[in-house]
Amino acid sequence: MSINNVSKVVLIAKDEWRYWLRSKLAVTVLAIGLILTLSSVVVTAITMLELSHTRHELQTTSDKSFVDQPDRHPHRMVHYGHYAFRTPAPLSTLDPGIDAYTGNSIFLEGHRQNSAMFADSRQGTALTKLGSLTPAFIVQTLAPLLLILIGYSGISRERESQTLSYLLSQGTSGVTLIAGKGLALLSVVGLILTPLTVSALFTLGTDESLLAVVSFVVGYALYLTVWVLLILLASSVFSKNSGSFTALAFVWILLCIVMPRVASTTAAIVVPSAGKIETDFAVKADLRKLGDGHNTNDPAFEQFKQSLLKKYNVNSIDELPVNFRGLVASESEAKQTEVLNQFAQQRMQAELKQTQVSRYFGWVSPMVAIRSLSMIVVGTSIETHHRFLRETEQLRFDFVQGLNKVHIEELDYQDDMNRNADAAATKKARVSADNWKILQNFTFHSDSALVRAHRSTSAFLQLLLWIAVLAGGIKFVGKRLL
Amino acid sequence: MSYLFLHLKREFGFLLRQKYLVVLLLCTFAVSAFAVISGLSEVSQQRETIERLKSADLTERLNVQTQQTDAGMLAYYTFHLTYSAPSNLAFAALGERDIYPWKHRVNLLALEGQIYESDAQNPELAQAGKIDFAFVLSALAPLIVILLFHDLFANERTSGRYDLLVTTSSSYFALWGARILVRFILLLVCLMLPFYGGAYVAGSSIYDVLLITTMCVAYLVFWAALCIWMGKQASSAPRVASALIGIWVLVAFIIPILGDLAINKIVHSPKGGEIVLTQREAVNDAWDLPKQITMDAFVASNPQWKDHVDMQSEFEWKWYYAFQQVGDEKAAELSHAYRDAARKKYQLAGMVSWFSPALLLQRSLTRKAKTDAIAAFRYEHQIRGFHKCLREFYYPWLFIKGEPTKAALNNMPSFSKTILNEKDEPEVIGVQLK
Predict the structure, then answer these.
(1) Which residues cross the membrane (chain A) (predicted)?
(2) CB-based contact B107:B80 (threshold 8 Å)
(3) How far apart are CA B145 and CA B184, in angstroms?
């Protein structure tokens, strides 16, 4: 494109802006759009920072109350357990994603893998089922509508008022005209994205990486570009303003309102997933074969007992230099955890498969694509929750086995066996509270920005494909513009 | 009659020749049908899951009973299934069942430690929301109405036929009434036909179907009237549609969002984490406290056991379960406040919904289908009631009689029986669950 053409494009864009500023509708729409985006950015940032703060605080309290427990029998601490809280990712101030839809705290104890508790949505008003005041929702769903409202007549208006043929006959090519109108719309996109970008840059101060921020902003820019192209195409193809408007409104309803829900509904039907309660039956059946770790006489531990006697070269468990009950607890915990992890892994795989099916709809709806892209890049997608579950499981296993180690090494077997005889015996079967320091402080971080960016590749490809197809379509139409 | 029919037939013919209207109506039908069919499949999946859980639960319970005989061990290892089966209308309004749990297993341990566990579905799908008939009707249908009705007058004006038509037509109805009626009836058919099919398959009651039909017609008439009224004077169709879509955005998004913000500011709820932490501290501290303190607290709320709380050894199951209950009692106040806050929020949201027809309709539908938060609160209430039954069943064996007999085990309380009995007590039904 020559310099001359570029200046023409800019001139057309400027003229479009002049038209918007003169029209009441366009100014109102622009103002509403900016107010919505700004307020969503502020409100969500405050909410998420508060949440993050609360959960950090609860985590500290929980860590402290564990370490502050008095002298006790170590196995009591296994059941006293520990709480872990999922602190939201820094960028979640822009897209809270699934944060409210899944429990944000988890109780960790011996022999069990609990599910996460206290999803905020269960304590909500159910008013935000259709949409919430988050930048993600505003930009994904409402911004396209605003772009349609100000842009639908871009070219069809010229045609309807018969200025189009005049413009074209004066040497402005169709493609240049469309490019000019497109530039004007893209500058609106820039306006909408500014509060988002500023807010995203702020997260750099709280340990978010530049890569994540850039992918986030670029993702949204691509998404809104898709809409700009759709608007330009419709406006060029339809001979009347009303035709262009109706078509665009219809496409918006289909892509932004209907498709995301069709995607999730289809996913749930195509890949049915058994709930936790249901898989728990299978888990229990498998666990029963392993024996009860509280009961040293369980026949399941006979072989383990024999191998121990052999290892320490003694004749009875009383002669062992270590606490046999602790050993059994530790052994059975390890075996149980293996089974539990295997089932947990299966459940996560099923959920991922479901999610994958719903993400495939990104090829037919850019809204679905940006939705997945945004949550993945921000770190509020299902993968992040799975990471939380895996990390807390590791935390659980480590502290339980740490306590079992204390049980094995610090507590005398005879004292342990007599623990229920009388109050004095109970008191004797305790270990010092210093041992509770084995607990490691827990802070949850989402996956590294690189991993997240890698995960979002297909969503990026979906958006790029949309852009390529639409740009091709516009070029085709632009050359035949009449 | 033939006069009316003639006009309708003519307008029907006109409509068929306008391709985009036909496409729009066909799409409406397709989306509505998809919503109903997927709703039916979701509900039947839920029913099947409950059936599978019931039989697995029974097998598991018998299994435990062959391995354990001691009352304390039985109570520790036996879990009891509770569930909330979907109603005959649930297919049309799946409601909050993807957020609130509808299945749960509990044992005799402290309930506050168990009841917040949720066997929720895929959160990423829950966040996107499901498409169900209630959504199609309350959120989507107004948009379709806008597309169908906004350009009635403007279209004729811009084509320059308006004045001619108005002066030559025999009556107002002959011209506009027939056109409006044809579009309205076709839209209604496309929306409702799948619902009627679904209602037949699901065996919903005629009364409910009629009621929902009335609500739908009223809702659609509201939107159609709004469109016609706004479109009457305007000459530019897109301008009318922009304003109408603006109203829709206001009603479907902005008002609910503002309401949500306000309600969350007004109603303060204790954090869920505090309840379980309180309960856990109470339960765990009991191990180190003198047994008498726990038993005194227990007897204070359960005086019927006061003659049976003496202990012979450092560990007895009756003491163990007593401190579990005391733990629940200590967390009770927080737990009540937590539930009250949720209820209060839902109630206030009901007031907000009077300003948003879309929400009002959605709430009415989920209420009818018993898939809303109130139904979930009620289910939680039932679980609590059932847990109380379990305590009443186990305590005599734990405190006095020792090993439960086979006959007693066969008569163990089950959730199905408990909710059957509950139906006889009308005071439990309704919003004011306490």
Answers:
(1) 25-49, 137-155, 183-204, 210-233, 245-263, 459-478
(2) yes
(3) 8
Identify the closest residue of chain A to B276 by CA–CA distance.
Answer: A107
Please tell me which of the candidates B140, B147, B287 has its beta carbon nearest to residue A246.
B147
Question: Is residue A108 helix, strand or coil?
Answer: strand
Could you give the CA distance from residue A124 to residue B346 in angstroms, rounded to a whole number?
A: 8
- Per-residue pLDDT of A295-329, as tens digits, reads 777 777 777 777 777 877 777 777 777 777 888 88
What is the C-alpha to C-alpha distance for residues B285 and B327, in angstroms, rounded to an integer?
Answer: 9
* B91–A contact, CB cutoff 8 A: no
Low-confidence ranges of chain A (pLDDT < 50): none
In this prediction, the residues of chain B whose per-residue pLDDT falls under 50 are 424-434
Q: Which of B314, B67, B117, B72 shows the shortest CA–CA distance to A292? A: B67
The token duo for B269 is 């709820």
Size of interface A-B (CB pairs under 8 A): 260
The CA distance from B49 to A422, in Å, is 48
Residues 6+ apart with CB under 8 A from B372: A126, B95, B96, B346, B363, B366
* CA B328 – CA B278 distance, rounded (Å): 9
Cβ contact A268–B373 (<8 Å):
no
What is the Cα–Cα distance from A216 to A378, expressed in whole angstroms? 7
Which of A277, A347, A372 has the highest number of chain B CBs within 10 A, making it the mutation to test binding with B? A277
Span between the terminal Cα atoms of chain A, in Å = 21
The alpha carbon of residue A409 is apart from the nearest alpha carbon of chain B, in Å, by 23
Would you call B100 helix, strand, or coil by DSSP?
coil
Q: Quote the CA–CA distance of A178 and A143 in Å, as a whole number.
A: 21
Q: Which chain A residues have a beta carbon less than 8 Å from that of B253?
A: 130-131, 142
What pLDDT, on the 0 to 100 scale, is given for residue A3?
66
φ, ψ of residue A292 to 5 degrees: the values are: -90, 120
B242/A26 Cα distance (integer angstroms): 10
State how far the Cα of A332 lies from the Cα of A346, in Å rounded to an integer.
21
Phi, psi of A86 (to 5 degrees): -90, 105
Nearest-CA neighbor of B390 among B105, B69, B46, B102? B105
Distance of alpha carbon B255 from alpha carbon B249, whole angstroms: 9
Q: What is the largest CA-CA distance in chain B?
A: 103
Q: Helix (H, G, I), strand (E, B), or coil: what is residue A84?
A: strand
pLDDT in tens, B188-245: 999 999 999 999 998 888 999 999 999 999 999 999 999 888 888 776 777 888 888 8
Residues in chain B: 434
Mode of pairing for the β-strands spanning A82-85 and A112-113: unpaired
CB A128 within 8 A of CB A216: no
Q: Is residue B7 within 8 Å of B178, Cβ to Cβ?
A: yes
Give B3→chain A minimum CA distance, Å: 32
**Residue B312 contacts A where some CB pair is shorter than 8 Å:** no
- Looking at residue A2, its pLDDT comes to 64
Residues near A103 by beta carbon (within 8 Å), at least 6 away in sequence: A115, A116, A117, A118, A119, B118, B120
Q: Which of A259, A130, A253, A149 is nearest to B144 (CA)?
A: A253
* SS3 of residue A112 by DSSP: strand
- Picking from A102, A129, A139, A262 by the largest number of B CB atoms within 10 A of its own CB, the best residue to mutate is A129
pLDDT of residue B432: 40
Interface residue B336 vs chain A (CB under 8 A)? no
| String of DSSP letters for A184-199 | HHHHHHHHHHHHHHHH
At B271, give phi and psi (nearest 5°): -75, 140
Is residue B424 exposed (0-12), middle (13-18) or buried (19+ Cβ within 10 Å)? Answer: exposed
DSSP annotation of A127 reads G
> Residue A481: helix, strand or coil by DSSP?
coil
